[in-house]
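Before the break, one more example. Copy the sequence into your notebook; we will annotate it together after we see the structure.
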Amino acid sequence: MFPSLWQHLVQGNQGCSSSDIDQLFQLLIKEPLFTLVDAIPWEGLLVIVIDALDECSGLKHDASEKEDFWDLLHTLKCWIQVDHLKKLKLVITSQPEHHITFPDSISIHDIPSGHGVKLEDSVSNDIHIFLQSRLVNMKMETAWIIEALKYLVPGAAGIFIWATTVANFLEGNPEVQLHILRSKEEGDDTEGIDDLFSLYTTVVQASFGQISK
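Here is what the structure looks like once it is written out:
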C-alpha cells in the first residue's frame, strides 16, 4: 500500500517548488489525502509521525526560518479543523517549549527525560536491554556486565544517543573503557559524564588526548 500511497501523494506535484508552507500543506497533505481517506479501511489508515518538532524552528538569527516554523505550527493545528484529516492519527514529539502550543482538544502526554527518568520507567528498561545486548556481544564477563549496567543505565537518563555513544566507546576493550568512564565520573580531569556534552568530551579526550574547552 505504501508505494502506491506515496505515488498518489506526489502525483502531479513533482514540479512544486513553492516555499509557502500553507500552499505545500494544501498540495501535499490536504488535497491528496481527501481522495484517499475514505478509500482506505479504518485499520489501514496511516499514523503520521513528526519527530523533534522543537528542532524545526531554525537558528535564532534566521528570521525566515522562524517565520516558516510559525507557518508549520499553523498547518499542524489545521489537522483538527479538516474533517478527512481528523480520521488520521498525527503523532508529534517535541521538547517542551513555551512557543509550541496546541488547542486543548489535542491529547498531550509528558514523557520523562533526563533527570526526570526513573529506573522503573519503560525507557530505562529499553536502554537496559539495549546495553546488555551490546555488552554481551562484546564478550564482556557476566560480573562486569552486571556492574556496568548498574552504572550506565542511570547515567543514560532515558537518552538513547547517550547509551549508543557509550556502547560504541566501549567496543574493543570494554573493561578498560568502562574504567575510563568511571574515573571521569569520579572527577578526574573533567566534570563527569552526566550529560551528552560531557560524555562527548570524555570520549574525545580518551581517544585523542586533552582538548581545550
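Helices lie at 2-10, 21-36, 63-78, 122-137, 142-156, 160-170, 174-185, 196-208. The longest helix spans residues 21-36. Try to locate both features in your own notes.
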